[in-house]
Specification:
Elements: H1 2-8, H2 17-39, H3 58-62, H4 157-256, H5 260-266, H6 270-285, H7 308-319, H8 326-330, E1 336-341, E2 353-354, H9 361-380, H10 390-393, E3 395-400, H11 402-405
Antiparallel strand pairs: 1-2, 1-3
Helix pairs in contact: 1-2
């Protein structure tokens, strides 16, 4: 049936359960009404009661004639009945027709008795007992005819068209609802994908921000450690300079009134004089000189001279930290002579002094690089020289010549 096919197309959706149940219930009610209307048997018409009148024989008794008279035949009671032809046909069964009631039974009036004929006298005889009164005839109850089974009426074409139109409308409504549910599902899926994408972007941004913050913290910690180390080195250097300055001041105070100091300054060795002359020539001509120290006198007047091994150790120590500038490698750069003062532990005290200053910018760059090299080597660790010969290498003049370094 079409109603069954309509019911199969009903589908409940989790998002609109109430609406689906309502539509399904209406469809079920329509289908049940249609099935009940088509399959219900037609109720037979109840037979109508037939009135029956019983006629007494009292009028006959009152009008009874002579017993010798002619007996009048008793009329038979006639009951009107329907003939089979008069019964309703099956086509007329759908149209209710009132049956004719059985008419009242009427007896004909009794006949007038005729005058008796004269008879010869007869001897008197005893009268015969009167005949028993005739019992009224029992009228059989008229059984109403059984109605023929009424055929199932066919559904009118108009009703069938209305039902088909309703079912088609319900199916179209359900198709529209299914399409609307699919559209809502697609929209929900699109919103879910957009939400997942938004969360992924937010998660990526959050991870990037956390990574940048972590790197910034690590960088700040690293810079703090480097700054602390640099401050510690500078503090150590400052303390070393202050200590060396105090020691120098103490030695200066000890030599201030020493009568042998003048003699020590006058009694300079030929080597010291040669060194001074070589330094003067270097300053005048710009020629390079090997790295060496000027011989300094002692408090007792005994001359002290730095050894070649000590000179090589100081030269290797300074060259290890020196980086020649690019401008000094291209042309004929002037050599830089630095006076450097050492502490007993081999570190530099104070800042090296340039002995041959010039106004040339290339020379200034070269001089600054030489000073940075000495300070860098001192921060990394002093030169390793014997402490017992500290007076011989306490102050030295270092000659930084780019041409010798590039050989």
């Amino acid at each position: 049936m079409k109603a069954g096919r309509g019911l199969k197309s009903v589908a409940l959706h989790p998002q609109k359960v109430g609406y689906g149940v309502s539509v399904g219930g209406h469809v079920l009610l329509l289908a049940a009404a249609l099935v009940g209307f088509l399959s219900a048997p037609q109720k037979p018409d109840e037979g109508e009661s037939v009135p029956v009148e019983i006629v007494s024989d009292e009028p006959a008794q009152s009008t009874r004639g002579d017993r010798r008279g002619e007996r009048t035949p008793t009329p038979q009671r006639v009951v009107d009945r329907q003939t089979p032809e008069e019964r309703q046909t099956p086509d007329e069964a759908s149209v209710p027709v009132a049956r004719e009631r059985v008419q009242n039974i009427q007896l004909p009036p009794p006949p007038t008795p005729r005058p008796p004929m004269p008879q010869p006298p007869q001897p008197e005889q005893a009268e015969a007992p009167p005949p028993p009164a005739a019992r009224p005839a029992q009228v059989a109850a008229v059984q109403p005819p059984q109605p023929a089974p009424r055929p199932t009426p066919a559904v009118a074409p108009e009703q069938r068209e209305d039902l088909e139109a309703k079912l088609a409308e319900i199916q179209a409504q359900q198709r529209r609802e299914d399409e609307q549910r699919r559209q809502e599902q697609r929209q929900a899926e699109q919103r879910r994908r957009e939400e997942e994408q938004r969360q992924a972007v937010a998660q990526q941004q959050r991870e990037t921000r956390e990574r940048e913050q972590r790197e910034a913290r690590e960088k700040a910690q690293r810079e703090a450690r480097e700054r602390a180390q640099r401050e510690a080195r500078e503090r150590a250097q400052r303390e070393a300079r202050e200590r060396a300055e105090r020691e120098r001041q103490e030695r200066a105070n000890a030599r201030q009134f020493d009568p042998n100091s003048i003699a020590a300054r006058l009694n300079t060795s030929p080597t010291q004089e040669n060194d001074r002359r070589q330094a003067a020539r270097t300053e005048a001509t710009g020629a390079s000189a090997p790295v060496r120290t000027a011989s300094l006198g002692t408090a007792t007047g005994a001359a002290a001279r730095i050894s070649g091994r000590e000179i090589d150790a100081i030269r290797a120590w300074a060259e290890r930290c020196w980086e020649i500038p690019i401008s000094a490698r291209e042309g004929n750069s002037q050599a830089v002579r630095l006076r450097v003062s050492f502490n007993p532990d081999g570190t530099v005290t104070g800042r090296p002094e340039v002995q041959n200053p010039r106004g040339d910018s290339n020379f200034q760059v070269l001089a600054n690089s030489a000073v940075r090299a000495v300070m860098r080597c001192s921060a990394e660790g002093g030169v390793r020289l014997p402490r017992e010969r500290y007076e011989t290498w306490r102050e030295v003049v270092l000659n930084f010549d780019p041409k010798e370094m590039m050989r």
